[in-house]
Structures are given as structure tokens and as C-alpha cells.
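Model: You mentioned two targets. I'll fold them one after the other.
Researcher: Yes, keep them separate.
Model: Target one:
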Amino acid sequence: MNGEFPPPVAARGPACSIRNRAVTWAREMAGLTKRALAACVGISEQLIGEIESGWRSATRANLGKIAEALNCPLVAPERRRHHIPSER
């Protein structure tokens, strides 16, 4: 693997696709198998595979555990708030 972010894969939506690809990329960069990551996180290898493929979304708690196991920051996208000037 050359360290580049992987190409998109089919998933439930754009945000889900990006998050799942990030988990796969970070796991591979850490040199871990799905089985090894699952053991570190305390979930099944099948669930790791489903999260990476986009069939299931990881809970916030599991995302935190995955990020910790991969020594990665947990970044959650936030909806941008538009400033509406007050009327005077």
C-alpha cells in the first residue's frame, strides 16, 4: 500500500462512505487485520467488515474505540451554521 487514501466504495451515503473508507485506510496503515482490530475494540470481525463496507454504521462509542485502537483522532463532521444577520 502506498499510503494514499483509497478510492470511494459503494455505501449508504457520502458521509458514510468517507467515514468507512477512513476506517479501512487507518486500519491498513496501522498494519492490522480486521480480526486484530476487532479484538482490540471488543467487537466482531464481521461487524468491522460491515462498518468498512458501509453495510452498517458504527455507533459513536465504537467509532471512539476504533479511533483509539488505531491511534487516530476522532473527527465528526458538523453541519455548518449560516449566520443570519439580526434586523435592527
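Model: Target two:
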Amino acid sequence: MLAFRNLRPAIYSAAQPLLDHGNAKVREAALVPAIPLAEPPLSLHTETSWLTTPVAC
């Protein structure tokens, strides 16, 4: 996960110029990687214990 997180800027930089391409299909294809990469990643230290903690009903 950390390796992918470190590559995010390079991947986004490769897709970003295609967002202004003259061909609509190219622009649409560039959106697939660009949207999730434009958002800041979740911290690797985010508290996730609530995901596995049983809930009393």
C-alpha cells in the first residue's frame, strides 16, 4: 500500500494532461485513474479497529 501511495503523484501526472485532450474518449479514459488519485490518500495510521469490533445488538 505504501509503495502505491508513493507512486500516486507520478500516476496522476501521467493522466492529468489527457484530461484536456481533444478526443472525448481519451478524456473519459483519463478520468478513471485521475479521480481517485486526485483525492488525498487515507492515512496508513487511521484507526480501523471499529471495523472488526463486534457490535452488541
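Researcher: Noted. Anything on target two?
Model: The two ends are 34 Å apart (CA to CA).
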